[in-house]
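Lab notebook page, bench 4
Experiment: in silico fold of construct C2
Operator: M.H.
Input chain length: 207 residues
Purpose: comparison with the prior construct
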Amino acid sequence: MKKFKIFLRFDKEEKWLEHMAEQGWLLSRKSLFYYFQKVVPETKTIRIDYREINSANDFLDYCTLFEDSGWKHIAGTKSSGTQYFLKINGDGTEDIFSDTLSRAGRYKRLSDIWLSSAIVLIPLIMVWQPDGWINLDTLSAPREWYLTPGLWELKGISFWWAFLFETPFALMRGIGWLIPIAALLICVGFAMKSRSLYRSDIQSKAE
């Protein structure tokens, strides 16, 4: 089974995955979707870390370190960032994090990744600007996005066939430049949210 969901908080994602396990579905893989395998319904403890690792050996050492503490790595790759762990025995540590500071650190690492992505997009947008990609005038004349000769004089099926065929290309010509700008805003938004969650966790430790 696979499901699509978006979480901004790791603790809420953990609770959802634990709820799924109680229903008999244990996480087995995570990409764009969550992939689950059928298991006997029971209470499970799942924790999430965020960490990108450069080499396969370092990733193996990382997973082994947690397994020695009673936590099995069940999903995530060395480059995926988000890593999922299942508590496999009652003798293991109570959490994969030693304290609140290390737990909050995952949000800081996530924020840094989103911010790096935003920084990469800035020069791309600047390069497009001189070439006329960013043009607010196109928003007021959507008919000009279409280049099929005589399109607006066509009737019936001929019109709809030509119109629907060209529309994806017309949208890219007319508002395609909005895509990197939207991506930039999303990256900045997620970076700020993750940094806010990091500060919130640190503050809860101080209290």
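Observations: The first helix runs from residue 10 to 22. Strands lie at 2-3, 25-30, 34-38, 46-50, 71-75, 82-87.
Next step: discuss at group meeting.
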